Amino acid sequence: MSLFNNKLSGILICILYLQPAFAGDPDYSVAAIPAALKEKAHAIKRMEELVVNVSSLSEKKIVHRYAITVLDASGDKYAKVIDYYDKLRSIRSISGTLYDAAGKQLKRLKQSDVEDLSGVGSSLMSDDRIKRHSFYYTVYPYTVEYEIEVKENNTFTFPEWIPQEDEPFSVEKSKLVVNVPLDFTLRYQSFHYKGEPVITTDKDTRTYSWEVKDLTVLPDERFVTDWHRRTAAVLLAPADFEIQRYKGSMNTWEEMSRFMYTLNQGRDQLPEAVKQTVHQLTDGLSREEKITKLYHYLQQHTRYVSVQLGIGGWQTFDANYVAANGYGDCKALSNYMCSLLKEAGLPAFCVLVYGGDNEITFEEGFPSNQFNHVIACVPGTKDTTWLECTSTTLPAGYLSSFTANRPVLIASEKGSKLVHTPAYSMEQNLQLRRITANINDNGDMLLNAVTHYTGMQQDDLQGRLHQLSREKQLEILKKDLSLPSYDVNKYECKELAEQLPAIDEQLEISAHNYASISGKRMFIVPNLLNKTTIRPDADVPRLSDILLRSSYRDADTVLITVPEGYMPESVPQSVSLKSTFGNYSCQATVTGNVITYIRNVSIKEGLYPATSFPELASFYGAMYKADRAKLVLVRN
Amino acid sequence: MHHIKSVAFPMHLLFGCLITFTAFSQDKDKVKFGRIDPKDFEKTKFELDTSAHAVVIADVGTSEFEMERDHFEIRFKRTCRVKIVDKNGYDAATVEIPLFKSGQSEERLLNLKASSYNLENGKVVETRMESKSVFTDQLKKDYLEKKFTLPAVKEGTIIEYSYLVSSPFYFNLQPWAFQGEYPCLWSEYSVTIPEYFDFIFLRQGYQQFTMNGEKSYDRKTYNISYTNNGGAGPTEHGSASASVTTSHWITKDVPALKEQEFTTTLRNHISKIEFQLATIRYPDSPLKPVLSTWPKLFEELDKDEDFGLTLDKNNGYLGDVVDGLTAGLTSDTAKARRIYNYVRQNFACTSHSGLYLTKSLKTVFSSHNGNETDINLLLVAMLRRAKLDAAPVILSTRQHGVTLEMYPLVNRFNYTIASVNTTTGTYFMDASYFYLGFGRLDGSCYNGHARIMTPEIPAISFEPDSLVEKKSTYVMLMGENGAIKGSFQQMPTYFESCKMRAQIKDKGKEEYFKSISRDFTSETVISNTAIEDLDDYEVPVKVKYDFEMKPEADGMLYINPMFSEARRENPFKSQERLYPVEMPFTVDDVYTMSLTIPEGYEVEELPKPAIVKLNETDGVFQYLIQKNENQIQLRSRVKLERATFAPAEYNLLRDFFDMVVKKQAEQIVLKKTK
């Protein structure tokens, strides 16, 4: 680097530092922020304009302009830009400016500072790439202003507008503007938004606009619904759309169902050899037997490998590809499974779903692309059979907590309404445990636990058994057990091949010093392995409704034998709680040198009003306390 | 100052000096691509004994030097055969091959073949991978990955792949790991090096070798282009016959190595061999040393524009700021402290790894961010601008692995900090963590050997043994109106204080004390809370609060005198240990409690005092408790003198902490007087 250059840029920097904000520039000084918005906030959105310009059925431009003031280090994450692009979406430009607390401009984004990274992630391959930028500034407060221009060559997807990005994040003002040609129908649904959008029309454009001001921070709450149901939000969708020369519409779920069918039509041709195998395996069998046979065949001969290329990851690799390679992603494997079933004479369909153990607030009244996963289904005269084709281990017909109990869309030629995947009831999601334990004079304990898990209560364990090494399984087991010091002598799990999956687990543990001994007294917490960790804060006012996602029941019976000669001095009182959300009881008794502890918990899934939160807090609070109650024995 | 100490558990470093000639056994042809025997599908001892999810049947590699037009390239060939035992081992069927590029030179992947084999009706059925199944993922501008996954993989499938990477970076002779995530029945590597290159061999690990670098000699003809007179002369072409030496390593039946708690990095412990080019001697040319000496390494880095070049030059732009910061100060230490704090507070660290500047110091200065080297070299430049005796210090962080005092290998270093000599002493600084006070380093830097970048490039050592994390807690308890009232005062360890500062910065004091009140097992109200020295980052904080709890049971009072300060779990959870325990620091944790027995109560039972020693002098646990009239005094101290322990000492260490957990759980029992 030459001396000349150094000098020159030195001068430029000085000028930038000294430059006052121009008249008419936005005022990003921190002093201008209303006090109510700063309260408990790490970051504040000072302004935002999200402008979507639909120019034709196959193209739209999105200009996103916003400024965020970061008050402290915890707010840094909101000041970073991470945006993806692929064949359907290109990032045309990113510009940005950094301001100090007084609103003086410090710096502008240089294009060379924008990182360009692979977006493949855990997939084997995808078209995704990522642009990333940050000013990495640490003198608080500071403000970043960005303008990002994106072009998307489709009208299938639309951005959502949720000005408030997180709980400790407030919004001064934000605006959504959508411009569409007069012949384009825009559909929308709003949440926590009073009134209707302002709609204006000129000679060839119709403009919709929404605006919010002064959104204060939200409390960080547990058991909540999706974020878009908790703050001001607008979801957008087209009526008619085009994506890579495929045209469709989504006014109704039926239309969307037909489109998804069309997109993947004709990709179900199996190689001759596989057809023969299907017939060898299934000819002459009943419907149920055919499904089970073919599902097992799929599980033994394929595995999940994500390759996301073309049409935004919505068009599947064909059945031939899966047959040849023995792998595919969710679409490819589901499509392949449907092909196998059809060959065996059973009509089968690919099904669109939003998969996930959480975040499943689905807007049934708003037909739009709310999906991220594909499964298969086989309609029957009585019941529909559902198949998760990316799992090589689930029993046929069982959907885990990843896809159970939610609206899904069947892709069919005639079009289908939304249907619901099965919900597993409290009595299907069980954890039944019986423990026998022996405590010696040193307080060391030998514990034998036999646990029967069913339904969704076995999902996590089932996943671990098949995806993790035994060392990792033991590591997780050790993290879950809160015992002072122990060795696992034996850990065996047996999966029971039943329609509703179940696992029998046998666990033997030597726990050193489980009981604390002080002189002639022994202190024992009789709840050995199943203490709730949930302890909601009752003092904080609750805003969001309470969502308990699944029903389940736990039953524990614990028998602890202690050395002869100990008498109970203090035994925890029995607790019995009945609440809207479920019931809890526990009871410890001492007979001779045996402690018997019985604990029952049942939880009812549901969406409960925010006003019932004090009851929830006291329910879990009492449970938390009772689970940790100590029993005191004294030696004669 | 720190002194160099001998490392407690030296890496098993051997050097290629064993000159023996061994005829290669027939085993060399053991793995011929595509030759799969139905016997290969039989269960190996690893599947039977250790529940391995995949077993590497053979992994065989060679590196050889070839001429490519006017330069040497290294041809690295590898054939790998793996049995997928069960579904948990499917990951082994996906392979990623990294390829690098620098300017016009780039590594090329050639001759990639991959097949899966399944045993069907006693016959081996092969499924070949199609070439279009190989993907290219451009991760960065100069770094890409070729990725593929094998077809037709089921439980029991044997997969096999072979490829050649031709690399123009002939100084980077590929290392070889004999140990990995899956057990390996046969791992074999040979390197054939022409006499022109002299490499140092660095070997580590705890495994027995079947062949251990045995050498064989041969001759080979190369067509070489070279320049005489150290590059000043004309370019010559010609062929030369050179003697070549092949070194050969084989291991058999190596188990997988799994990471356990308290490990710097598995890279320090797996069985592997690495190479470092020491000298080049082309025909009729003078010997060209490549491996540096320490003073030379200093010179190179000092002149490197990505390291030392601009530390003292062209930094007029720092003038105003440095002058402003040091105005009015006379003491060197005060100036250094002021400049350090300025850099620490005003520059954001984007990455805590990297030995080189990612941009010019001037850009670092104007952009207010950079990696740790950017920030700490800027700090050195500013200190020097203030006419202070400052220098960079290079080291390798714990996760990055050890550096060797014997070999000046620059690529073993990944981190730069700053040092300054003042009238009051030498201070080491790292301005890349906002919470580190002047003269403090992060625990990750305590990894032994480091070098101060002055012309003599002296060695220093940051030993975890020398880093004592001290903590002291004092609790006073008394009974009042049926409640237990207490006052709590604590000076947590320095690193705990750092964590607290970060936590409080994020969530606030109120939330911090709320979490403390939740740590008590019974319902407890906390008042008069205070944290001192929250903003003085050079010292630990002091936490104070009063608490009040309502005992439940009538008649008896059970009090754990250590409350939530008791260690509730033994940190050493694994049953056995195959390599050293490497803790990041030593501990000295003192807890004192004094209880005034509430009126109307008497002592029913007290825990017994105890003293436990670890290896006589390596550590001690004291639990002293006594009663004087209506006072109960407790003093608990856990002190370790060392941070690193041998595998053979693991059980002692584990038992020691078992004892700590046991005693600290004990209770004082008071009962109502009649």
From TrEMBL, chain A:
Q: Identify the residues that the record assigns to the DUF3857 domain, covering every copy.
A: 61-215
Keywords annotated in UniProt: Signal
SUPFAM superfamilies attached to this UniProt entry: Cysteine proteinases (SSF54001)
One matching Pfam family is: DUF3857
Looking at the record, the residues that make up the Transglutaminase-like domain are 284-376
Give the signal peptide range. 1-23
Q: What is this protein called?
A: DUF3857 domain-containing protein
Tell me what organism the protein belongs to: Chitinophaga oryziterrae
UniProtKB/TrEMBL annotation, chain B:
In this chain the DUF3858 domain maps to 576-657
Record the organism: Chitinophaga oryziterrae
Top-level lineage group: Bacteria
What Pfam family does this protein match (any one)?
Answer: Transglut_core
Q: Which residues form the DUF3857 domain?
A: 81-228
Q: Where is the signal peptide?
A: none
Transglutaminase-like domain boundaries: 321-400
In Swiss-Prot or TrEMBL terms, this protein is called DUF3857 domain-containing protein
